[in-house]
Amino acid sequence: MGLVDHPLTPSSFQHVVSKQLKQSVAEPFQRTNVVRRKFIRFSSRVSLTRSMEIIVSLLFFTTTLVGNFFSAALADGVCSESERMALLMFKNELNDPGNRLSSWTGANCCEWAGAVCDNETGHVHEIRLRNPYDDRCARLNHGAAEHEAYSRHKMGGKLNPSLLTSYLAIDSLRLELFHGLIPHQLGNLSFLQYLTIRDSCPDCKTKLHIRNLQWLSRLSSLKYLDLTGVNISEPTNWLQVTNNLPSLIDLRLSRCGLRLITSVDFDNFTSLRFLDLSGNNFNSFLPHWIHNLGNLLHLDLSDCGLYNQFPITLQNMTRLRYLNSSSNNFNSAFPNWFTRFRNLEVLSIADNLVRSELPSSIGNWTSLVTLDLSQNQLEGMLPESLGKLCRLEEIYLSRNRFSGDIQQAFTGCISRSLRLLYLGSNKFLGQIPGNLGELSKLRELDLVDIKFSSPLPVSLGQLQELEYLVISLNLLEGSVSEAHFRNLSRLKILRANGNKLIFRPSRNWSPPFQLKGLSLRTWQLGPKFPVWIKHMRRLNYLSLARTGIADAIPSWFWTSTSQLRYLNLSNNLIHGRIPSLLHFGSDWNVAIDLKCNLLSGPLLPVASNISMLDLSHNKNSGSMHHFLCSNTGTRTYWKS
C-alpha cells in the first residue's frame, strides 16, 4: 500500500512567537512528489502499552496503511485475498457505532467505503476513515445535532501491532492525538524518512512520553523528525542520538522537557537546516554547540530560559532566514552584527532585556518580512532606514522606550508592504503622523498608550484594508467626523478608550463597517443615545462608559445587540426603567455593566446566560427576593 500524495514537510516555516507572527519563510528543501508515496497517518486518540496494544478512540481519523507485505494484487481493480483478510482483521478490531464500515463485506475490497486501490497494481494503497463531521465546527456553531452526529461516527478499538514491523516499507508516519508511551518498535521502520509524533491531546491523562531514544538511532534514513510536546525528560542522550542521524534536515523538539547538553562532538549535524527547541526550560546560557550549525536556515530558541548576552559567534550563521529567541533573559545591547544576517526573513527577540538604540544598518535586512522587538528596553528614535525595507510586512515594537518622531521611519517603500504595525507603550512625541494613512496594505494598527496628542488624523480613514485599530490611552482631543471612517469597510475591532474625542454623526449615518468589538470609553457621544449602534449586528463587545449619554436606552438596542458577550454603559446619565433582560443574548455567557446611571424600577428576571449584572448606584426599587430566587446563576450588584 502507499499514499497518493501527502507532503509532510512544510512548504513554509510556521512562525511561533509570543504573539501574532503569522507566517514565515519559504522552505527550500521540499519533498519530491512521488506517486503512491508510502505513508501512514493516524489522527486519533490512542493509548500505547508495553504489549503494543493500541487502543484507539479516533477523533479525526485519517488513516493510510501502507506496506509491501501483501501478496501481489490483480491489476484489474480486484484486491488480493491477503489484503481483504488484513482489512477485515482491521475492521474486527474497531468499534463502529455509526456503521460506517457496513460495506466491508464483499469479495472485492476495492469497492469498500474508504478503501482506495491503485489503478495500475490493484493494491489497496489508501484507507480514508476521517470522521465526516468536524467537532470543532460543531462547537463553533453551538450545534448539538452536529456534535451528536460527530460522536455517533467516531470510531474506536485496536490497531494490530504488526503494522510496526521491519517489513513494512513506509517512509512517512504521522501520529497525532495519541497518549501514553511511544513504543520502541517504531525503530523497526527502517525506511522512515518523515516522522511526526505530536502530543495534541490536552484532555489525555497520560501524556505522550519516551523513556529511551535508542530506537531512533536505527532510523538512518530519517530526514524530518517532529516530536513536539512529547515528554523526553528521561533520556539524557537526545542530542547524541539525533546527531547520529546522518540524513536529518529538520528537527523539532518543542516543549519536550529536554535537559540541556552543553557540549557534543558533531559529525552529522552539518546537514541540519531547521532546528526548533522552543519551550524547553534550559535555564542556561546559549550552548556553544549551536554556534557550529552554520548551515541552519531556521532556529527557534524561544522560551528556553536562556540568559546572558547573545554570543558573538552567532554572527557566523549568516544563512539564517528565521531566528526566534523571544521570551528569554538575554540582557545585552542590541547586537550590531545582527544586521549581517542579510537573508533573514523573520527576526524575533521579543520579551528579553535587550537595550540601546537600533542601528541604521537595519536597512541591510532587505529580505525581512517580520520584525518583533517588543517588550525590551530599546530606546531612541526609529532609524529612517526602516522605511527602506521593501518586503517588511509585520512590525512589533510595543513596550519599549522608543521616543521622538516616527514619521520618517514609515516613509519609503515600506508603505507599500506593511500589514501589521504595533507601536504601543512607547514614548513617541507629538501627534499621530498623517502619513500612516499611506500604508495602503495595513490591516492592524496598535498605537495604545503612547500619549499622542492633538486631533485624530482624517488620513486614517484611507486605510481600506484596516481590520484592527487601537488608539486607547492617548491624549487625543477634538472632533471625529464621518470622514474618519469613510473607507474603513473591513474594520472589525475599534478600541479608543481614554481619549477626549467628540463624535456626533448625523442621525441617518450608516457606518461602512460591521464591528465585532467597539470600545469608546470617555468619548463624547451624548447626550442622545447613538443611533448608529443599531447597524452593528455582529458586536460581541461594546463599551460606551463615560460617554455623556443622558437618554433612555431605545427598545431597538436589545434586539440589535443580541450577540453581545460584554456590555458596559456605566457612568452615564441613562434614565428610564430597568430593562427586561429575560430574552437577551445568545448561548454565550453575558456580562452587563449598567452601574452609576439613573435607571429606576424593580429588577426583573433575566436570561439564564447573563452571568454578571451590575445595577449598583441607580434608582432601584422593590424587593430583591423574587429575583434572587429566580436567577441563582447570575452575579448581581444592586445598590441604590
Please characterize this protein's 3D structure.
The strands form seven sheets. The protein has a 21-stranded parallel β-sheet, with no helix packed on it. It has a five-stranded mixed β-sheet with strand order 4-7-3-2-9. Strands 19-21-23-25 form a four-stranded parallel β-sheet, with no helix packed on it. By secondary structure, it is mostly beta strands. Helices cover 7% and strands 20% of the residues. It is globular and about 80 Å long. Among the domains are: 34-54 and 170-268, Ribonuclease Inhibitor (Leucine-rich repeat, LRR (right-handed beta-alpha superhelix), Alpha-Beta Horseshoe); 62-154, no CATH class; 525-640, Leucine-rich repeat, LRR (right-handed beta-alpha superhelix) (Alpha-Beta Horseshoe). The termini are far apart. It is built from six helices and 40 strands.
Concise summary:
The chain is mainly beta. Helix content is 7%, strand content 20%. Among the domains are: 120 residues, Leucine-rich repeat, LRR (right-handed beta-alpha superhelix), CATH 3.80.10.10; 93 residues, no CATH class; 116 residues, Ribonuclease Inhibitor (Leucine-rich repeat, LRR (right-handed beta-alpha superhelix)).
